[in-house]
Structures are given as structure tokens and as C-alpha cells.
Amino acid sequence: MSRTFLARGMAIATAMTLYAAVSAATAGTGAASTAPAPSPTTYEFVGTATAGMTSGADLNEAARSLDAQARSADAASYAGASVDSVSHAVHIYLTSPPSDALTSAARSSVYPVAITLVQHTMAELEAAQAKVTANIAALARQGVNIIEVGVDPTNNGVHVGLLKSSAPAQNTVQALTPIPVAVTFEQGSPSLIATRLVDVAPWKGGDLMVSLNQGNVVSGCTTGPPVVNPTNGHQYFLSVAHCFTATGQAVVNDDFEDSRGCSWVFCPQMGTSSHLDSTGGWDTALIAAQPSASNLDWQNSQPYNPPTTFNGFTNPQLTYSKSIQNELVCASGAKEGMVCNTTVLYADMDVVIKGVTYHHIDRAQNTSAVLAGPGDSGGPVFATPPGHLNMEGVMEAAGEVIPCVTYPARGTTCSHTLYYQDFGSMASHWGVVLKTS
After folding, report:
1. Would you say 435 and 317 are in contact if contact means Cβ atoms under 8 Å apart?
2. pTM, two decimal places
3. Is 228 helix (H, G, I), strand (E, B) or coil?
4. Residue of 397, 424, 400 lying closest to 412 (CA atoms)
5. Burial 227-241 (b: 16+ CB within 10 A, else e)
6. Which is it for strands 203-205 and 293-300: parallel, antiparallel or unpaired?
7. pLDDT tens digits, residue range 366-424?
8. Over the stretch 296-320, which tens digit does the pLDDT of each residue have?
9. What is the spatial distance between Cα 203 and Cα 296, in angstroms, rounded to a whole number?
10. Which of 269, 292, 381, 421 is the 20 to 30 Å CA partner of 196?
11. What is the pLDDT of residue 234?
């Protein structure tokens, strides 16, 4: 989604700003390694390539060759390398003027080469990285949750990525090393590459799921928002009762319609239907997560590719609220994918579905996209404030029918209209809360 890509772009800009802030802040400390560096000296070589020679593969190969030359001929002052894919140039970083061998290699390169003199060698940067890494556990006990540490040759410093929920930590991390440290805040911890169809534990909201009764398929649905019982710590997915016929039914990570079939290809079990209530205006359930649930929900860019492709991404769920009329939300069913810019028409309604009156139901509509269809039941509905997901509901039913898009074989069974249950009401019914970590 565009908001996420923008946030990462903003994170990069923030990192560059923080480097500048670190240099300014440490200028008065008297430490030679943190004194403001003079304007860098750059040796520029124009390259011998013709104007049309812009192959990314060739550029990368040129960079690798020059990097190897620098590591060998200028080992004592080597500070890294990078590639500028816009200007098609190779950048080499050293702490002293280049050797004749490197100069000759740069002069004969088909691509432009810039050799920039910086303050810290690669050995110093790697030592700083190691120092921060060695303190990850200790910092975590202080609420500083580091998820990545690495050398940043372009800025001649160290990059540290923290979970967004971490305590303010720029000064804490910087105190570990005199090398400039840039702290950026990330929305979630890294996870193994997965899709809605081929996921890994801890499982996510929005996964494809199939419920089984003694090995026989009951239905295909979508996992709902991960929740937790605050009293005993048990982890669940909030779901809808109509995805099951009884408690104790296995829930596996599979697609009801992709013909994969758990009878001949192993499908990992995500949990078991542990609580059902289809009485008194409720259609709600809990899936006991096995072995664990994450605090993440699936999203995807549009157009939505079939969920067997690697087109998805996740973000953490940190807050929840009731939907408000005319606000825009995103529904994230596993079959039709995440559809945002969906308008809430009415909130907290009583709705009759197949003769049964259900309570705490919201109605939303998106006339420019296929919003929901069979198999999306149970999927999360959320808003997307900066930095996280605000959970608002669980997908329940569709309105007027239109042709499906992601799985055309389903025919005219999808809809522009979605009915979803209010998250807060369902969570309160079961005594669970949104899983936020």
C-alpha cells in the first residue's frame, strides 16, 4: 500500500537527518572520532561507457570489481562501496587518497566512479556494528528493541532499526560507540518470506484457512485478527462461527479452491476451533492458535494477485476502535485481498441474514473494487493510521452479488458491499484483547 512505501521512504530521509544531528550534537565533546568532518574530498572519473550503456547487471559487476580492487589495494583505508542506479555510477569510500592501482582501475571503468574520502574505515564501522549487536539483549531489557544493525557506507556510519514501539533510543544506542549511529523505527519485526497461502508460525490475520472435521473439509475462510486472553495468555484468532460446525475442528493453512488439498500435500495446522457462539444475535468464534499467533495482519497492493504469489506484506495491529460513518477502512479477506478506500455507510447495526438477526454489524461499500466474496469470512477490517493498523472488525457477509475477480470460477458470488462485525464487541464477548506484541 502507498502509505507503507511512503513511510519507508520517510524512514530513509530520517536516517540521513539523524546522521547530521549526531555530528552536530557531538561536535563539542572533544572526541576526535565525532568531530565534524570537513567537506569530503571526492575523486571523480567520468567513465568510458557510451551514453546508452545503462545495464544494471553490468553496473553491479563494475561495482563488485572496483570494490574488490579497493579492498585489496587500499585495505587500510577501505570504508565501503555503493551503487547509484539513477546516475549509473559506482561509489568507493576511503579514509585516505586512493592508491595508483585503484585510480587506474577507476579511470578505466566503463561507468562513472566517485572515490570519496570519509572519516571512518570499514574496520571501525564493523567494530561499531559488533558493539551494538553485542548489546541487543541488554538494550531490550531497557525497552529498546533492536531488530537490525548494519554498516551504512554511504553515510559512513551504522544503521540501527528499532521496533516502532521501542523507547526513545538515539542517545542510548549512540553511547555505545563513537561512530555515528542512525536510528530508524520499523513497523514490525522481520519474518520469513510467506504468503497468505504458504505462511509460517507465528500465524497472521488474513491467512487463507480451511477448517476440517476429521479430515473432511468444512469450509474455506480467512483468519481474523490475532487476540489474546489477558488472564491466561492463551492466543487466538477472532473468527466467525459459520466457518465451523463444532469446536475441536482443525484449522489448516490452505486454499479451499486451489486444488492443493491437504490429503496429499502437507498443510500446517494453524489451530483449532475452540469457542463458538451462534446464538443471541452472535456469529462469533475463537481459533486457538497453534503454536502461536503474531500481531501482524496481511495487506497487499492493488491489483491483487492470486495469494499463491509473493505480493503481500504485513503490518502490526496496535489499536482498535468502533467504525464511524463515512470513514474509510480496508477489508483484508484472503480471497479478494485487501481493498482500501472503502466507505463505512452505517455502523453498529442489527442485520438480518438468512432469517437471523445479528447485532453490532457495520456496513461498508466500495463501488470501484470487488470488496468481498466467499472465503473472505473472518478476515480483518482495519483503518491505516501512520505506522500501524487500527482494528475495527471481522468480515461477516457480502451484499448484492457481482462477478468475482481473483477467482473467476466462483462466478457471480462477490460483492461491492461488506457487512462486518464490530471488533470491540466480539473481543469483549470472549474476554480477549487485541494482540499487539
Report:
1. yes
2. 0.58
3. strand
4. 400
5. bbeeeeeebbbbbbb
6. parallel
7. 999 999 988 899 999 998 887 889 999 999 998 888 998 887 877 888 999 999 999 99
8. 999 987 777 665 555 678 999 999 9
9. 8
10. 421
11. 97
Distances (CA, A) of 193 to 160, 313, 415: 22, 9, 31
Contact 240, 375 (CB under 8 A): no
In this prediction, residue 313 carries a pLDDT of 87
As a whole number of angstroms, the distance between CA 355 and CA 349 comes to 15
- Which pLDDT does position 100 carry in this prediction? 96
Band of residue 14 on the pLDDT scale cut at 50, 70, 90: very low
Question: Residues 206, 194: contact at Cβ < 8 Å?
Answer: no
Give long-range contacts, CB 8 A cutoff, 24+ apart: 303-306.
304/336, 304/337, 304/338, 304/339, 304/405, 304/406, 306/406, 306/407
Identify which of 395, 241, 224 has the alpha carbon closest to the alpha carbon of residue 293: 224
Position 398, amino acid: A
Place of cell 540501527: 160
